[in-house]
Amino acid sequence: EPPGLAPLSAGAPPQAPDLLYADGLRAYAAGAWAPAVALLREALRSRAALGRARRDCGARCATEPEAALPALLPASPGPDSGSRAARSAWEPLLLRAALRRAECLTQCGARRLGPGGAARLRVGSALQDAFRRREPYNYLQRAYYQVPLPISHPLQSSEPASVATRLLTVPAYWGSGGWVVGSSHLPVFQKALGQCQLKKLDLAAAAAHTFFVANPTHLQMREDMAKYRRMSGVRPQSFRDLETPPYWQAAYDTGLELLGRQEAALALPWLEEALQESLAQVESCRAGCEGPEEQQKEEEEEGGTGSQGGLYEAIAVGNLSQAVENVLSVLLFYPEDEAARKALDQYQAQLGEPRPALGPREDIQRFVLRSLGEKRQLYYAMEHLGASFKDPDPWTPAAFIPEALREKLREDREKRPWDHEPPQPKPLTHWKDVLLLEGVTLTQDARQLNGSERAVLDGLLTPAECGVLLQLAKDAAESGARSGYQGRRSPHTPHERFEGLTVLKAAQLARAGAVGSQGAQLLLEVSERVRSLTQAYFSPDRPLHLSFTHLVCRSAIEGEQAQRMDLSHPVHADNCVLDPDTGECWREPPAYTYRDYSGLLYLNDDFQGGDLFFTEPNALTVTAQVRPRCGRLVAFSSGVENPHGVWAVTRGRRCTLALWHTWAPEHREQEWTEAKELLQEPEKEEEEEMPSRDPAPEPPSHRLQRVQDKAGKPPRVREEL
Ligand SMILES: O=C(O)CCC(=O)C(=O)O
Ligand SMILES: [Fe+2]
Q: Catalytic: 587?
């Protein structure tokens, strides 16, 4: 096998993961694929070995005599003087245990990992993050894919004579361009080559999958995954996670899903399992975090309490005393929790007689006690030794936090990430009045959406108005179908159907009686509503004109949705041609260069997928995501600062009124005015078109044709009838 695909040398002591990773990336950049694969794999192996050694040593040293950390301060009789006395008794205990444990860990690490132990393999926090994000797998998948397998034949190549001579005795060797094989051995090698090809694709797909499960919004990888799925050599089993996923999460999700379907009895074992797994994982994480490593986030710890939402309710179906124990366990975390207290009262009432023997679950009691002991130590270190510690738990009782730290921690917690960012240009003062006037609310501004010139506004349409516009889209599509127009496949994906309706077409259909004129009228009104709001918000000093208005519905095509990796609308900017490689955006045709602001007014949310997202100009990094819903407007400037796309719509139909605004009056939407005029033709005439007066009306498409012929000039409908 080529070096990259051969099994790793299991026995050798691991080398430092960061050095291996750096060498792997260098090889990758140089296009030396096989060495890149070998080095990246070795980096992953070494990091895993380090993790295992840490966990094992941590578990061993925790049981070492004298190394057990004193969990709690001895009970303090009085407020101040008592706690000072207690502390002076406690500190030497803590110090001795900590030193003893550190010594044990150092010795154990050296035994497991060779001289220098864990410290030698220590990885900086930036690289820790890269590993946590599974970045090596992204490089690995490409490198696997690229490992060269062609056989070069010495007689046809310009290999030096010495090599050719060697091939008389040695059947093949690995050269810079792949295998070099003597002619007599060629058939054997060709067969092996086929197997090798499959193996490398299998590994490439597995590495891609491993990266993708941790980075599901990575658009480049989405595309790569779609390609792997189409490759004939790749089997479904290839898409496996090369890092074991945290098992409890899957069990927890299953449990919650069952609970949501009122299957409490079935949910219970899953939730219980999730709880046990997460407790075990906390244990292993705890061991893994010990030793001379930078502090790790204790993400998993939340799992220990995460199950409380369903567990005690679930248990109510069967065993009441267990239910009581579970609620009492929840109350250990959140003693004031209203719902838990109510549930407790209810279970106790059902139980009848009081059962003083019932208490919180033992495993949870142990967990809480231990966590609190650790927190006591961590806060102590924070207060007195200058250590930093970010408590991941929302349930830590306030009394546990040293008074001196409380105020600062509260401030930190309330500080939102965007408070650190430079202030954005402020919306003008009259903007608030505009909102008030329109009954619209600003749900997210540019800062909250991680960008500039972006906003989410709600309340632009009432549910009834959404209904009218959805009906308009539906009627227009049906009238199209009647005239042989089947709605077309989306220009962006073969898995969706796409229907678009312009304002003029809507007005024409209304005049032809194929759609209600109320819908067509509303379309015009609403587009003007959006325009005036967009102008007030983004361009109060310079008029904006509508340049194009399009009612668009995207529908999932049934039965074609399994494992879809494509997007409903690929990432793009609205007024320029985006080059994700350089992050540049060319403001030139075929882009609609005169578009200055975009508006997406959503009409519904009863579909699956289909969220709008914004990215960096690299078209890969998602910076914000918005779920469509009736009356929600996403407004943004149309340039490179706002690349956006739409996730696949995998079920149902998603309808949007898409609008573009321009500062250039010459690009004002002519059709909007025409539609307006068309609809303003005397109302009566339309009423005369009522079917009651025409029991056998000609098909709408014919009538439509006639009106269309007149488009642009006000049609003389009466004469035609
Ligand atoms: O429908 C959406 O949410 C986005 C559509 C879009 O970006 C476009 O049509 O340019
Ligand atoms: Fe767009």
A: no
